[in-house]
Design a protein that fits this description.
Blueprint lengths: L1 E7 L2 E6 L9 E11 L1 H8 L8 E2 L3 E9 L11 E4 L2 E2 L5 H4 L10 E2 L11 E5 L3 E3 L6 H4 L2 H14 L6 E5 L3 H13 L3 E5 L3 H9 L4 E3 L6 H8 L4 E6 L4 H6 L4 E9 L13 H6 L3 E4 L7 H9 L9 E5 L7 H4 L7 E5 L2
Parallel strand pairs: 11-12, 11-14, 12-13, 14-15, 15-16, 17-18
Antiparallel strand pairs: 1-2, 1-4, 3-5, 3-9, 3-18, 5-6, 6-10, 7-8
Helix pairs in contact: 4-5, 4-10
């Protein structure tokens, strides 16, 4: 089978691999669509640790090609998506309900082979059926949408809240829609790329601001003088992360959602955090949210079809990171057919 394999930072190769075989309790999936996300880009840039060489990709949907013995009743032809994070179910974190923080976490496309390939293998416990009403491309958004759901859960967004999202790429757009579903009345996206701002407004954001034209702090205070109730940093930009305490109201919450470069340091004034009783949270992975993501997509509560700006054949995958992050890009999608 063909597969996109990351060997090291900047070294991505399309090569032939032997088609994997499902073991006991595993499912072999024929991949139909796989999204490209910020974590993939960070892996390619060497800003996120990985067990290389590894087949990249983890946001995907497809159909069951073969089910191993004891694979939970899955049959060839079943339309599915996955939670790509395999956990041990036995460590202290798993046993206290924090499986996404598992001591032996193994994520597709990072620690184990992922889905930018014609086929992949995953435990049946991580596989979810999808309805016929969802296309494979739409279902490939289940993983990032589940991450957005988790982030909004952590933030405790309430009815009537003002939410500010720094970065309106694919994840920023999903967070905006989840915040709206949670009851936020005012949803502001800060994004220098016009296409992304406009898409967020089309998908339910109430305000779009351009940080390249005027300071974000002045713009959010024009909209709400107290500042936002919740600020999400969705770009993984250390400068934007450092700015967050000046954008949130006293007693508000900050969620660092984007993947920042490992080892990078920022300065935050601890007096400001203490005096204003601010909460700074990290948001990692998508614990127990995949079923909810499927339900929101199937119910039309979240729009994703308009987020796809580019489609690539698997053969063209090595070009992806030359385009990723450009002014005309939003979600990039590898389509296998």
């Amino acid at each position: 089978m063909k597969a996109a394999v990351l060997y090291a930072a900047g070294d991505l190769r399309l090569e032939e691999r032997k088609r994997p075989q499902p073991g006991r309790g595993e499912v072999l999936i024929r991949v139909r669509a796989c999204g490209v996300c910020g974590t993939d880009a960070a892996l390619y840039r060497g800003e996120y640790p990985a067990n290389t060489p590894v087949i990249i990709g983890h946001e995907f949907a497809g159909e069951v090609a073969e089910a191993g013995e004891g694979a939970g009743g899955f049959e060839p032809g079943d339309r599915v998506t996955v939670d790509p994070n395999v956990v041990c179910h036995a460590c202290a974190y798993c046993r206290c309900g924090n499986e996404h923080l598992c001591e032996r976490l193994s994520s597709m496309g990072v620690q184990k082979d992922g889905a930018d390939a014609e086929y992949c293998v995953i435990p049946a416990t991580n596989v979810y059926r999808i309805p016929e009403t969802l296309s494979y491309e739409e279902a490939a958004f289940c993983e990032p949408l589940a991450c957005a759901i988790h982030g909004v859960d952590l933030a405790g967004v309430r009815l009537g809240d003002t939410v500010l999202i720094l970065g309106a790429g694919g994840m920023g757009n999903l967070i905006a829609q989840c915040a709206a579903a949670a009851g936020a009345a005012t949803i502001v996206v800060s994004e220098p790329i016009a296409l992304r701002r406009e898409m967020a407004l089309a998908n339910g954001a109430t305000h779009g601001i351009d940080p390249a034209r005027r300071e974000v702090e002045r713009q959010i205070k024009d909209i709400r003088p107290l500042g936002a109730d919740v600020v999400f940093e969705a770009a993984g930009n250390p400068g934007a992360q450092a700015l967050c305490p000046s954008l949130v109201r006293r007693g508000g919450k900050i969620v660092w959602f984007g993947v920042g470069p490992k080892g990078k340091r920022i300065e935050v004034d601890p007096f400001l955090i203490n005096e204003n009783e601010l909460s700074i949270l990290g948001s990692f992975d998508n614990p127990f949210a995949t079923s909810r993501a499927i339900g929101m997509l199937a119910g039309g509560r979240v729009r994703v079809g308009n987020l796809i700006s580019h489609r690539f054949a698997l053969e063209d995958y090595p070009r992806v990171f030359k385009i990723f992050g450009g002014a005309d890009t939003l979600k990039l999608m590898t389509v296998m057919d």
